[in-house]
Amino acid sequence: MPEYGIMEDGMKKVSKTTKNNLITYGMVVLAYIIVQILVSTGHVSSLIQGLLVPFCTYVIVAVALNLTVGILGELSLGHAGFMCVGAFASAVFSLAFKETMPGGLRFFLALIIGAAAAALVGFLVGIPVLRLRGDYLAIVTLAFGEIIKNIINALYLGVDGSGLHFSMKDALSLNMEEDGLMLIKGAQGVTGTPNDSNFTIGVVLILVTLFIVLNFINSRTGRAVMSIRDNRIAAESVGINVTKYKLIAFTVSASLAGVAGVLYAHNLSTLNALPKNFGYNMSILILVFVVLGGIGNIRGSIIAAVLLTLLPEVLRGLSDYRMLIYAIVLIAMMIFNWSPNAIFFRKRLKQRFIGNKKLKKEA
Predict the structure, then answer these.
(1) Measured between alpha carbons, how far is residue 46 from residues 43, 49, 59 in Å?
(2) What is the pTM of this model?
(3) Measured distance CA(269)–CA(115) in Å, rounded
(4) Which residues have CB under 8 Å from 273's CB, separation 6+?
(5) pLDDT interval class at 359 (50, 70, 90)
C-alpha cells in the first residue's frame, strides 16, 4: 500500500508540472494569436510592430538569465556579452553567405553558430568565474561583457579569395583583394545583415527556449543544480559535482542568450556593439526583467520583459510624466512580488481559492 501511495503522489506531481508547463506554452501561443489578429485588423501601430521582434529577444534572454539567477542562484551581469557574441557570430556568417545560401537554411545555421559561439564563450568564462560567489561573480561577469563589446568595436574582419583577414588597427591593415568583403568594420559594426528574423520566428524560438529551460529545471540535472543553490555543502556531501552542474547550467544559459542575440542581429540592417545594445545598461535591464518577474519564476520573466519593454512606448504621449509613471510601476511590481505582506496575502488568496474548489468537488 505505501508503494502505491508513493506512485500516485509521483503521478500527481508529474501531471501538475506538465500542466504548469502547458499553461506557459499556451500563454505564449495565445499572445501570438491575439497580436497577429490585431496586426491584421490594423489595430497595432507601426511603432509597436517594430518592437515585436525585440519583445521576443528580451523574453528569451530574460528566461536565459533566470536560469542562472533563479535556478542556479548565481548573480550574473554578463548576459549582454553572451548576446553580443551570438549576434556578431551569426551576423558575420549570414553576411558571408548572403548570396550563396537560401535564407531559411542560412538563418537556421546562423542560429546554431550563434548559440554554439555563446555556449563556448560561456563555458570558457564559467570555468574560472563560477569559483566566485555573490558580488564578486557579478563584477567579473560585468567586466566580461564590457571586454567583449570593446574587442568587437576594435575588430576589423574581412574575407577574400585567400581567406579571412583580421586586424585590431584599421581596415587598411587587412590587405585584402579588391573583390574582398568587409564583415566587421570596427566601431561601425556589421552592415548588410539579411533581415531573416520576424515575429513568428521569434515566438517559435521563445517556445523552444521555454521547452529547454522547463525540461532542464524538471530534469535530474536541474534538481542537482537547485540543490547546489539551496545548500552547496549538503549537495557536495551527497556526491554532487558542484563545478560540473554549475558549468552545465551557466553554459546552457549563455547559449540561449546567444540565440536571443541571433534574433536581434537579423532584425537590423546594421549591427553595432553600442552600450545601449550590449553594454552595462542592457545587462541591468535584463536583470530587472528577472527580478521584477520573480527570481526563479519563468512565466514572470516573460510577463515582465513584455510589460517593461512596452510600457515606455505606450506612455510616450505623456512625455513629461512618462518616466515618473514607469518608475511607479517598477516600484509597485517590486512591492507586489517581494513584500512579505503581499506574499502572505497571495498565499491566503490561493489557499482560499483552492479550498473553495475542493469543497465544491466534494459536494
Answers:
(1) 10, 5, 21
(2) 0.85
(3) 20
(4) 84, 88, 148, 149, 152, 153, 187, 189
(5) very low
81 vs 273: CA distance, rounded Å: 10
The predicted-structure confidence for 127-150, as pLDDT tens digits, reads as follows 888 887 777 888 888 888 888 888
Residue 199: the pLDDT is: 92
Reply yes or no on whether the pLDDT at 267 is more than 70: yes
Q: Please write the tens of the pLDDT for every residue from 206-264.
A: 999 999 999 999 889 999 999 988 888 888 888 888 889 999 999 999 999 999 999 99
Rounded CA-CA distance 255/117 in Å is 8
With a CB cutoff of 8 Å and minimum separation 6, the contacts of 279 are: 80, 145, 146, 149
* Residue found by looking up cell 566566485 in the block: 132
Question: What's the CA gap between 208 and 5, in Å, rounded?
Answer: 35
